[in-house]
Each structure stands twice: as structure tokens, then as C-alpha cells.
Amino acid sequence: QVQLVESGGGLVQPGGSLRLSCAASGSIYSIYRMGWFRQAPGKQRELVAVIITEGGSTNYADSVKGRFTISRDSAKNTVYLQMNSLKPEDTAAYYCNAVRLGYPHYWGQGTQVTVSS
Questions:
Q1: CA 52, 21, 58 angle in degrees (round to 5)?
Q2: pLDDT digits (tens, 9 = 90+) for 79-113
Q3: For 46-88, what is each residue's pLDDT tens digit?
Q4: For the chain, what percentages of helix, strand and coil (3-state, to nearest 5) are there?
């Protein structure tokens, strides 16, 4: 099992920044990929950014490229999402995700990000 605990959401004005954190515990040795997804009211959950634990390659949704950066601190078993130049359309619940090959995806409880003036 893998447990994921997110933090760092909140209310921010358009153009502002936030950093989300996701701390992983449990069977972390076999995690292949970690990342962030988001879900706005009435919409499907969508990929925001992911990072491969071996090698560190990343992938981003087109809507956040150049504004968001995903990173990983392996010593702390933590993944971060630095979000800059936030827009109202970034408002959503953000969920941390972890993938172990051959197992169902693991999800955090979610953290709310609201971008509003």
C-alpha cells in the first residue's frame, strides 16, 4: 500500500503562485510514477503533471506548460507542484497520484486550489 498526503492548497489571486506538496509513505520503493491531477466541478479529472521516479522525466498538460513545474525530493519521498501565473481556470481540487506497476493507482485526499480576485 501507498499513502499520499497533500498540502499547500488555498485561495490566490490571478497571477499568483502556490506550491503543492505530496508526501508518500508505505511501499514507496516500487513507485514508478507520481503526479498531479485536478478536477473542477462538473468536469472530469484531468492530468496536470507527472514525473517518472527513475530518471525524472516529466510530462505536462498543455494548459499548464510553462507555468507549472513538477519536482521530486527522493530523500523526503515528496513530490511538489510549483504553480505560477495562476488563472481562474486553474481552480479545482488537486489530487496527488502514485503508480506501482501491476497495482491500482493510489490517490491522495485532494487539496483545493481557488484562483479568484
A1: 25
A2: 999 999 999 999 999 999 999 988 889 999 999 99
A3: 999 999 998 889 999 999 999 999 999 989 999 999 999 999 9
A4: 5, 55, 40
Asked whether the CA dihedral 22, 84, 13, 87 is positive or negative, the reply is: negative
DSSP state of 89: G
Closest CA to 7 of 111, 117, 94: 111
Distance CA 65, CA 104 (A): 27
Encode burial over 27-63: b for 16+ CB neighbours within 10 A, e otherwise: ebeebebbbbbbeeeeeeeeebbbbbbeeeeeebeee
Task: Give residue for cell 462538473.
Answer: 42
Query: In the numeric block, which cell numbers belong to residue 28?
Result: 514507496
**Contacts of residue 22, Cβ cutoff 8 Å, sequence gap at least 6:** 4, 5, 6, 34, 36, 78, 79, 80, 81, 96, 108
